[in-house]
Prior knowledge:
The structure is a homotetramer.
Chain A lengths: L1 E4 L5 H13 L3 E6 L4 E6 L9 H4 L4 E5 L19 E3 L2 E3 L5 E5 L6 H14 L3 E3 L17 H14 L3 E4 L6 H7 L2 E4 L7 H8 L5 E4 L6 H13 L5 E5 L17 H8 L4 E3 L1 H5 L2 H13 L4 E5 L17 H17 L5
Helix pairs in contact in A: 3-4, 3-11, 6-7, 10-11
Amino acid sequence: MIIVMKQGATPTNVESVVNRVEELGYKVHLSRGEARVIVGIIGADDYLVRSATFEVMDGVEKTVRVMQPYKLASRDFSQTDTVIDVGGVPIGGKRIAVMAGPCSVESREMVLEIAHAVKEAGATILRGGAFKPRSSPYSFQGLGEEGLRYLAEAREETGLPIITEVMTPGDVELVGDYADIFQVGARNTQNYSLLKALGKTDKPVFLKRGISGSIQELLMSAEYILSGGNMRVMVCERGIRTYETATRNTFDINAIPVLKQLTHLPVVADPSHGTGKWDLVGPVAKAGVAAGADALMIEVHPQPERAWSDGAQSLTLDHFAELMRELEAVAQAVGREI
Amino acid sequence: MIIVMKQGATPTNVESVVNRVEELGYKVHLSRGEARVIVGIIGADDYLVRSATFEVMDGVEKTVRVMQPYKLASRDFSQTDTVIDVGGVPIGGKRIAVMAGPCSVESREMVLEIAHAVKEAGATILRGGAFKPRSSPYSFQGLGEEGLRYLAEAREETGLPIITEVMTPGDVELVGDYADIFQVGARNTQNYSLLKALGKTDKPVFLKRGISGSIQELLMSAEYILSGGNMRVMVCERGIRTYETATRNTFDINAIPVLKQLTHLPVVADPSHGTGKWDLVGPVAKAGVAAGADALMIEVHPQPERAWSDGAQSLTLDHFAELMRELEAVAQAVGREI
Amino acid sequence: MIIVMKQGATPTNVESVVNRVEELGYKVHLSRGEARVIVGIIGADDYLVRSATFEVMDGVEKTVRVMQPYKLASRDFSQTDTVIDVGGVPIGGKRIAVMAGPCSVESREMVLEIAHAVKEAGATILRGGAFKPRSSPYSFQGLGEEGLRYLAEAREETGLPIITEVMTPGDVELVGDYADIFQVGARNTQNYSLLKALGKTDKPVFLKRGISGSIQELLMSAEYILSGGNMRVMVCERGIRTYETATRNTFDINAIPVLKQLTHLPVVADPSHGTGKWDLVGPVAKAGVAAGADALMIEVHPQPERAWSDGAQSLTLDHFAELMRELEAVAQAVGREI
Amino acid sequence: MIIVMKQGATPTNVESVVNRVEELGYKVHLSRGEARVIVGIIGADDYLVRSATFEVMDGVEKTVRVMQPYKLASRDFSQTDTVIDVGGVPIGGKRIAVMAGPCSVESREMVLEIAHAVKEAGATILRGGAFKPRSSPYSFQGLGEEGLRYLAEAREETGLPIITEVMTPGDVELVGDYADIFQVGARNTQNYSLLKALGKTDKPVFLKRGISGSIQELLMSAEYILSGGNMRVMVCERGIRTYETATRNTFDINAIPVLKQLTHLPVVADPSHGTGKWDLVGPVAKAGVAAGADALMIEVHPQPERAWSDGAQSLTLDHFAELMRELEAVAQAVGREI
């Protein structure tokens, strides 16, 4: 950490800061410029030093962190891209994995119909929500365990591994009995109790970026799971909240290459939530692949106008099949397969 | 709900929409303008009608909600301001309640020292965190039940009711054994499992606005608790995330009068998180009172430079006492007491 | 426009609103729901009706616009994509135009070197700034007319048309003497005096989205130029301001397909400003093409570490040439050429 | 400026950076931590050193600015609050100046009526727009010079100095012939050509924060005017653009005390644009005063429902008079007068 003293900080101010650093057990490195003094803390794992310790001291202007706060998630920990094997489907390698399915599991028939259709079209993983975080207490909250059973049946019929959301630590065991991948939604990215519980499981975790989460916060949340002992985490860009109202969220395409630089974990793009409109899903899915995403998550529904949730952003089965064909060319153009 | 058809929508498009509305059991009201047709859904509790049902239909441009999605939290439900009694301390009336204390409970001595000091200065409720949501898994996570015991001891000594954070449904019972008010933090505003659990308790809930939550989302989250049966909820503006980096958050002062218009629930201002800097807490606390807040939450610490968390935004005990005196004049200027 | 009355609005409230609409010369269409009354204004070009006229009346909850405020820029005006011919280079057709060059024109030699290199690599238009909007009055402000002369010389040598920024109405004539395309920067997107002046010229205008401009505001600004008589406008997504600090701006990839839906004008992507970091320019340029952009604007510099401005986001000549080769495959994958 | 090297940067990387700093004529201060090397540039006016110079070099992770980029606007330049005299009305002293008037000048009668009324209520300066920046080219663009004449007549009748907006350098002379204070609107905060032109005049300038401008950018824009030789600048918080749609803008109350800390220039609050709704103007005006604003700008209109612009946020003459009475108590509570 670097501590920038104010212009006009007194020698006593500087001395107090230096003493405080040394009291904490760190070595000091002092730079005296013409206008200001800079105090460097040497050898410190600086995210464990509380910056406020210094920010409230007289004569201190600001503190600047030098080191990244995450370790296991960082490229420093592993230069090699992590590949997560999910029931034989690799996520993170040359081949782009496609997770497709309905927002909510609505019925047994519906899930089976979708599972067969998306498999046919080339999807490798089936998604579907049984526990649904809804902004209104009066909205449909998901089928719960019944939904999980339908998903499991679809897996048995098609061979597709399944991913489904878990909302609270108390459900981790139940959801884990059915799911191949735990999904953590955007409203739970910083639900640390949940992240800690998932860190103790042995199943892969799909972690979405928060609704207005920073890239660093996403990796810090991944670190919660990794540091708990579960190294199979993938992170997902799903659009962030901005002032623009033309779309449901603003898909942060920059986040794809930024995450690829910062972490070895697989990076997933979710153009369904990233746009909120089915007719934008295709262009943004292609953009995600072109920018380097390792996987896609896409919502589909046989009759979007009758979907119980997220119908506006769901592709029909036909549109999904068409998109998969188009994505093949884009994947090849950037040296990938799909 | 109003459905705006596209310019050039065909009669068949309009007919399909009308049929779909009627199929859902609602009555239709059609307005034919020169350029467009507008389809109104009459008599519907329109937040239960899925807008996507229509947004994906041919010829539809957009849908517009007419009704508010929350009911129990709204002024339609109660024109009278709700006053919540917490161990004899009213929150929501003429007198502005002040909740003060440390970010984290660090030790028995520290909590007792602060409790006496803030009581002396005029605070009416003691705050303190025992379970701490921290962005890093390597940071101090709170003293847990030990911290709760210290808070309870401080209550016994000073008579101040206590408020403390609960992070997960599994802790509701434990925290409820000690706390007078459950605090829900900004990262858990949309932790619906937690909100449902709190809706079944009989203790007041202090609900913070999400880090980038909208005012409507805050009231919808309150609705989760209210609809669960617990009518004693207060909502808190604590700053939102914006592009401005001069402060930790941007305190949304507009939200204070907006919330007072929309809801009967008590409205709290948290200038500590709203600014992130101790020397801005005073001006923004005064602004909050001037704008109509019913209560304040303020972080204090005997030695902010040694605080285990949030030191940069904590007032010293002296600064807090001074601020309380200044707030008195502002409260009187707007017809309140403190 | 639709006027939503409050729950509990009195018959007199409704009557006043109806009278006001009729006084303005419009016809009224009344919908009486169970809980509320909706007043529709029929046949009005509703962006000319001041919504405040109604929003301040007793009993009115809100107003909702139905029509788009732009006309000449909209798809209603032209279903066919506009193709702008710039000295033989078409912008807006099957072939993706690439505008490349330095942020600032620094010297004659530098511009000529870059012009030859980017032409060789496949760029079709040369960019370069002679008048520079800089946030500090103490920073380099551009070479002015001297810079324009160097650009003109580069055009003469290479045949590449040139695009350069104009900052103020007083410079329109001077810049127009040299430039083939006027560039309007993100800080001037709503400089209406400038837009009006450009509406009277006969040269194409390249209009950037504002730093935190909405898509609708961008099209409204285009409308200023179009309604002045100059129909050759292209609009550019260049990243928006958000809370994310990992990149200079957040490139709004959604805006590309949204703009293609809303307007017939050519849509340009600027991954240099959209990311602010040279090593993200490639992935985001590919994403822009995959999402449907008609053109790209990319900053290059022979020695980015010595650039007088925007060095951090400038590609070296070699990296630019390499990117052009990679873009070819992506363009083909989406049925385009480059 | 501080240059943070990457973990794993080679000695050659460090040497190149050091050489580059010395080549630029600055002295280097090297700090070698256990994990990283930090290169400090000593004695440099660091906002003139281009950070990109270093950010693109091998082994560099990031650069951090130490000094503020503005000088004349800063507290380092003057510890004493600047008081601007406008025709006998001081702006910036103990007494809070109130600038009130219509958004647009609509007619001679209307301006005179308002001028008398706001003077009576206690306003000290008359505002009114003659040149209007409107997002639509089809909206009313202001009365132009005719409007300026009406304002001048109102000044003659009431003695109130007048403030009015100037949109482009070409109008500076004309507007200066009438106005006592030049107003720069939020869309022109970074119109550097305009700022330079105003720096050469001898009249006070009222500079609004950009629609999504940072506090630092506001002060940099003030610096453009100050460095041009015009030291009479006041800066205005008028709300920023965020994701929240309940209000037109989010009034950044934090900005008031932050600006008071950073600059000696008078700080104005504009609750009309800051909220966009007349019934929020009062609470937020009081909040602005409580937080330390030196002046207020408030829009009033005799019949807001008939205003040609901004009617929704305009107070009636009666409401304005009532607010002025309420503000008196708040001003006194914080040791000011109004």
